Predict the 3D structure of the following.
Amino acid sequence: MIEQTQSFEDLGLSPELLKAVEEAGYSNPTPIQEKSIPLVLMGRDLMGCAQTGTGKTAAFSLPVIDILSHGQARARMPRALVLSPTRELAQQISENFTTCTKNHSLGHAVLIGGESMPDQERALLKNPDVVIATPGRLLDMFERGKLMMGGIKILVIDEADRMLDMGFIPDVKRIASTLPRIRQTLLFSATLGGEIRALADAFLINPKEVSVAPPASIAKTVTHTMIKVPKFPKDKRAALRRIMAGEDLQSALVFCNRKKDISVLRSSLRKHGFEAEELHGDMAQHNRTETLAAYKSGKIKLLICSDVA
Ligand code: AMP
């Protein structure tokens, strides 16, 4: 559950945006939105410590939309760039922009690996104001001359800690080196450890820091349980089946440490009558997207996945 405090009207957003926010069903800002939005509207660089589920996407998308509403993108020169470590997060950010730009004439394009380059090139020809991208595909497009970075006024680095874990920092640094030095930079991360702070030193200028949850804390609604099993992996699978059979499961994600364990576990569960599907980075992007959509709609109840989920 998202904690809510004051009203969106207090944050300095435009009437068009307030209308879109209301239509999205957001009645009050979440704490990260309340703290970030006024600072971003002021033009400050920001380091936000917030996890997924806190409303962090709208914490940057809303003020970015209002800032960009005062201008227009030139040919293949977007004005804001949002970097995401995963394709799925990029899609979620895109959905958020679609919802929040309902009353604006701002366009955005999504550049992610595993999907058609020509489609994405066509999207760039529409001169999007915002580009939401994973680092590799963005560099690829840039190096092919499909977009220019000289017009970027705002850079958002989302889930910086995951960028670090996934080895994307060299790409992020290369991307940052192609951007104008005078710009606004917003960095979001679930944790703000030493390496993230070093990154912030490299990319941000005199940033304001906002935090809504202590590093590595978990949501209040989550219960942790550890189950010890004597024989590995046979007893582990039996224990998992026992847990699942004992619950009235509406939806469940089972994470595996290694990709190769995913299909083994899925086959084993299916043999025991559990309708399980899998989700991991070795699947074709369209299969990943379809599987995720089926999980979200409730068609798939049980998803065995890697951290890509
Ligand atoms: P995020 O942390 O950005 O992934 O957002 C988590 C979820 O919270 C998304 O489904 C958002 O649509 C939703 N959300 C974001 N801001 C608000 C808000 N102010 N009120 C209610 N829901 C929100």
